[in-house]
Amino acid sequence: MRFLARLLDRAGERVKKSPAAPLYPLVEAVNAALFSPDETASRAPFIRDALSTKRFVIAVVIALFPVLALATWFYGLKVPVMLLVAYGTGAVVESVFAWFRGEHIHEGFLVTGILMVLIFPVTTPLWVFVIATVFGIVFGKEVFGGVGQNPVNPALVGRMFVFLSWPALVAPSAYPEPAYRLFEWYSPAADAVTAATPLLQLKTGVLPPDASLLQLLWQVKPGCIGELSSGLLILGGLYLVFVRVVNFRIPLGMLAGSALASGLLGLFRPMPDLVGAWLSGGFLLGMFFMATDPVTVPATRVGKWIAGLLCGLLVVIIRALTPLVEGVMFAVVLMNLASPLIDEGVRALQRRKEADHA
Amino acid sequence: MSVRHLSLSYSSPYRFRFRFQAAVDPVGFDGDAVDPVGLELHLPRDAARVRWTPVGLEPGATIPAWTPLAEAATPQGSAFLAAGTDVRVLEGFTGRQPARLEVSSSWRPAPDDLTPREVWLRHFAWLRLCDPVGGGPVPSTVVPDRLFVSLFDPEPLAVPETAPAPTEVLAAITAWHRAMDARVPVTLIVTRDQARAWTPAPDVEFELDVLATDAVYPAHHPGLALARRLYPYGFDRLRYAWTDLETLRLFEAALSRRPEAGAIPVRLSGGAVCGVARLAPWSRIDPAVLGAPAGALLVQGGLLTGTAAGLAPVVHPADRAWTWLTADDRREFLWFMNPGFARDSSSPLFASHYLPWVRRELGAGLRGERRFCIACNRCEVHCPAGLDPQHLWKCLRKGFDAEAREHGLRRCLECGLCSYACPSKIELADELRAARAKASRVRSSAPTAASPEAARRKEESP
Q1: Residue numbers in A near B292 (CB within 8 A)
Q2: Are B349 and A5 within 8 A, CB to CB?
Q3: In a shared domain, residues A258 and A143
């Protein structure tokens, strides 16, 4: 192992001096992923918590891995290929920007890449997917200064771009029916069997009579890759909440906000079943994995509640009052954009309260 | 080895000094000793005008702890001075000549049978004159341009009802003003519970600014749990917290075997080692004296709040401990997948979180690359002063110094827990400390602009 570490060190040095210098951040990232750095704290405090950002990110990847594995079972080899494409594209874009800035590659794109796969249907052509990834990482994150400084979720930025550019390719009216395709390559021509998503059925009110909430929870559903199984998403989300990678205030706020909006709108017009709306579409994926990205939500605790409520309200309003079937993407991005304002307001109130108290 | 000298002297009828010279304290904590500043403040109103009568100071005698060393009758009742530990009299008190006393420090748990007055005296340790920059107590001879008096309860004690009443605290501060012949604006830092007792604002002869914060270190606070374990390695700010007395006793026993030098080595994770020792004041430090290996980093103070020593360090009398630290240079394969059974972390992502009985190793290595803040809020969870370090840090980075101050930069205790907890390995504590130092430089260079009293005077006489 020490031999390998030394080998990577030497390779990094050599790449740095060679014409392939732009690739140095990639080599360095591999080195840092395999071996811990040997840096010792030189300023107080001289001891440090063993937690690192890599561990944070890996926890999210672990939480999403079962969903991805199940998707591979039902949608075939295209799913892992899409993941590889997302990671490859992300690594190239990240290392170009890292080279320009003279920085290291941040592990944040491991999460962005996996989310990218989950928010697209398997019918998406790979070129659209690559465009979405590049656009999302460049214009969602890198132009603002990289990880930690992005105002909105980069995966959603990419998806929004291609959603508005090629709506038919990204959000078709009918999705392929999940079936055992583990060793197959999904092609629309071969798999003509399509189905409406439960969300569309809820919206148009033509939910089949045998559909129940339990089925929504445990059965696989047509839709985007990540919407396949609500149960696995809930398990992964609860794991993240349990290990405190995800703050529980956002998901709870979203649930409360959507219940509130659903109740209020229900006074004026018929609304789909609330729990059914939670379990269908991208609500769970957005609630546990998109809206909870700590960088893009308010930093204050009260602000997190407000942002969650706002996001839940927006999801239901967009789903009910606009022609769009799915509202999670726009709701999360709008909430992200509002979060600096929410933070500012909460902090101003806190300051005033403190001044009154003292 | 743990000998202290205590001298009692009057320099003028209005100035009264109780000097407490201590050898370097190994762990920053002694069971029963009372803060000298606290003792100095134990003066009722008008106490300085009263003649103090020393009692029972016969050479060679041993005075038990909490026995009055000097007594005075005041309009408010009798006042006394006492030491928290047993005192041996070396030379008696003769007129203007101060008495020389010897106080042996020993690690003892608090006696249960304290009278209310003794408990009150003990609680007076809370009344600390904080230097807002250094965070430490203000030396007794210095008259600062602003007083920060902290009534923080570092750890909720068993008898909260014996906390000093507002009148008592104000009397003490007033007495301090008279003793120092000074008139200084006072900022009183209290908890929210204490703050309720302070409304309406009392009528005092100095400018009083009461700053309420959330209670510091509630019992479940992760910082407190960490501080408890770290105590022997120098968590200087928690001087009044009752901590693991068994550990302290062991530590003391180990130190007494090697009284002058030689540090106790402690193994950290990743192959690093550290050691803590106390040294005689004004002695030159050689890492070899401490028993440190060549190339070890020398730290003045403990592992949490110490500073890296310079080229030719000398032990200052105020130093409580010296630490050496070797590098954590082991490169671990797939380290972020390590389940972490013995890792010290407050995160539930580590197995040690679920196994409290497992001995955890502290890590000296950064174990991760420096990254930009991902707003995980762990620093906020750890901050004992209830601040949001990441927000302060971002304000400072953008140059919004005034906003950082509004959000409580001056309440920072410089305990370093935010840096400790940060997964992105940002030197939060270091940068906040630098910002505070800068703010205090600005304040001292422009005192007329900073002092509200001066500003008011300016307004009154245009």
Answers
A1: none
A2: no
A3: no
Are the CB atoms for A259 and A200 separated by under 8 Å?
A: no
Instruction: Say if residue B203 is exposed, middle or buried (CB neighbours under 10 Å; 0-12, 13-18, 19+).
Output: exposed
The domain of A277 spans 247-358
Residues 6+ apart with CB under 8 A from B221: B384
Q: Which residues of A touch B194 (CB under 8 A)?
A: none
Are A281 and A326 contacting, i.e. CB atoms less than 8 angstroms apart?
Answer: yes
Residue B79 has pLDDT above 50, yes or no: no
- Residues A235, A103, single domain; the answer is yes
Q: Is residue A39 part of a domain?
A: no
Higher local confidence (pLDDT), A146 or A88? A88
CB contact residues (below 8 A), chain B span 48-107, against chain A: none
Distance CA B110, CA B157 (A): 11
The rounded radius of gyration (Å) of the Cα atoms in chain A is 22
Q: Between β-strands B147-150 and B128-130, what pairing exists: parallel, antiparallel or unpaired?
A: antiparallel
Instruction: Break chain B into its structural domains and give their ranges.
Output: 3-213, 258-365, 367-462
- The answer to whether residue B345 neighbours chain A at the CB level (below 8 Å) is yes
Interface of A with B in 96-155 (CB under 8 A): 104, 106, 108, 145-149
Cα–Cα distance for residue pair A63/B340, rounded to 1 Å? 19
Same-domain check for residues A186 and A266: no
User: In total, how many domains does chain A have?
Assistant: 2
How far, in whole angstroms, is CA B239 from its chain's centroid? 5
Q: How far is CA B462 from CA B446, B456, B459, in A?
A: 19, 10, 6
Residue with the bigger pLDDT between B43 and B69: it is B69
* In a shared domain, residues A147 and A241: yes
Residue A346's SS3 state is: helix
Please give the Cα distance from A334 to A55 (Å, whole number). 29
> Is A48 among the domain residues?
no
On whether both A324 and A340 belong to a single domain, the answer is yes
Is residue A152 pLDDT above 90, yes or no?
yes
Contact A299 B390 (CB under 8 A): yes
Residues A302 and A209 in one domain: no
The pLDDT tens digits for A171-212 are 877 788 888 888 888 776 665 566 777 777 777 766 665 567
CB contact under 8 A, A35 and B325: no
Beta bridge partners of B130: B137, B148
The alpha-carbon gap from B30 to the nearest alpha carbon of chain A, in Å, equals 23
Query: Is there a single domain that holds both residue A241 and residue A251?
Result: no
Residue A37 touches chain B, beta carbons under 8 Å: yes
Contact A20, A96 (CB under 8 A): no
User: Rounded distance, CA A281 to CA A230, Å?
Assistant: 9
Contact B336 A52 (CB under 8 A): yes
Residues from chain A that touch B417, judged by Cβ atoms under 8 A, are 45
Q: Which residues of A246-273 are buried (b: 16+ CB within 10 A; e: fewer)?
A: bbbbbbbbbbebbbebbeebeeeeebbe
pTM: predicted TM-score of the whole model, two decimal places: 0.69
B contact test, residue of A47, A142, A242, A295 with most B CBs within 10 A: A47
Cβ distance of A48 and B323 shorter than 8 Å: no
> How does DSSP classify residue A286?
I
Task: Tell me the pLDDT band of A46, cut-offs 50, 70 and 90.
Answer: confident
Indicate whether A314 belongs to any domain. Answer: yes
CB count, 10 Å around CB of A345? Answer: 16
Please report the pLDDT score of residue B10 as a whole number.
32
Residue A44 lies in a domain: no
Q: Give percent above pLDDT 70 in chain A.
A: 95
